[in-house]
Write a structure and sequence with these properties.
By secondary structure, the protein is mainly β. It has one domain. The chain has one helix and three strands, in the order ββαβ.
C-alpha cells in the first residue's frame, strides 16, 4: 500500500473541512495506476512530502 495524494472535502454531518489521504494497494501488480476520482472532484488536492513522515 502506498500514499498517492491528499484532498480536502467538506465532511457531513458535522460540516467540517477535512483533509483525507488516499492510500492504494493494487493487487494486480499495476503499481503506477492511481484512482483519480477524488483528485478530479476536489478543488483542493495535493501530494504531501512523505519523507518527513519517517
Amino acid at each position: 500500500m502506498k500514499y498517492c495524494y491528499s484532498y480536502e472535502e467538506q465532511w457531513q454531518p458535522k460540516d467540517m473541512l477535512v483533509t483525507f489521504r488516499l492510500y492504494q494497494l493494487n493487487l494486480d501488480g499495476e503499481k503506477d495506476r492511481v484512482y483519480r476520482k477524488y483528485w478530479e472532484e476536489s478543488e483542493v488536492h495535493f501530494v504531501e512530502d512523505t519523507k518527513i513522515w519517517i
